[in-house]
TrEMBL record:
<dbReference type="Pfam" id="PF00582">
    <property type="entry name" value="Usp"/>
</dbReference>
<feature type="domain" description="UspA">
    <location>
        <begin position="2"/>
        <end position="148"/>
    </location>
</feature>
<dbReference type="InterPro" id="IPR006016">
    <property type="entry name" value="UspA"/>
</dbReference>
<protein>
    <submittedName>
        <fullName>Nucleotide-binding universal stress UspA family protein</fullName>
    </submittedName>
</protein>
Amino acid sequence: MKKKILLPTDFSKSAWNSLKYASELYKNEEVDFYLLNAFTVQNYSIENMMVPEPGEKYFEASKSNSELGLQKLLKRIELLNVPVNHTYFTKSVYNTPLEAVKSFVEDKDIDLVLVSNKGETDSIDVLIGSNSIDFMEKVRNCPVFMVPSEVNFKEPNEIVFPTSFKTHYKRKELKHLYEIARITNAPIRILHVSSEQKLSEEQIEKKTLLEECFDGLTYSFHFLESTDVQTGLNLFTQSRNSGMIAFINKKHSFFGSIFSKPMVKDLGYNAKVPVLALHDLRN
């Protein structure tokens, strides 16, 4: 079955870079890519419920610019010599980027959202860049894969997966991590950062469950003593020059506090490697 990947775009260099990254990462897979541009209209505010009517001058001008941008993007993609197993579709929509993505994920049953961590002017705080943090946090029914704007594709030497061993892991939640590890032959480095030296019985059970989920892949366990998960993760990935990070952005309980907004922001803004945000499907 074809994979469906959503590529939100604001026509920036960074958005183009993430598109190329996606094409290379999934070069041997059958994929439908959806290029989504969310546009707004001058003198109107979505937040204030001021909605322009189709046919109004400003609305039609903004819509036309959006559609023209998407057509130019398609022509640029043709020059890329993309794999024949990749198909590209476009969608222009009046909405905020976050709401546009959430609606499109639901409507099209999207498998993965792939986005850059910088945006329109390639300064970090605008449009897609700041929205990538919101995507990782608030798009709960689909994994979000964030590619730093300066990163060109290369197969990761390893994928770091930080965990508390307190999650009831499910194969379907880890499916995209499993698949990326499989198609890139990257080993998974399972990292436990804690001030506790020993695992509890429950954590040992969850560790065994994780081993079953990663059956067929190369993986190893690593333990760091630290009270701060964020610091431990940074030290581990930097010292090993790790090529990718994946984590379960779990609401409530352990990762609700550890991978909370500050952690997601840190990964989103400061990560030097791609980050895959998975979700606990029970949340």
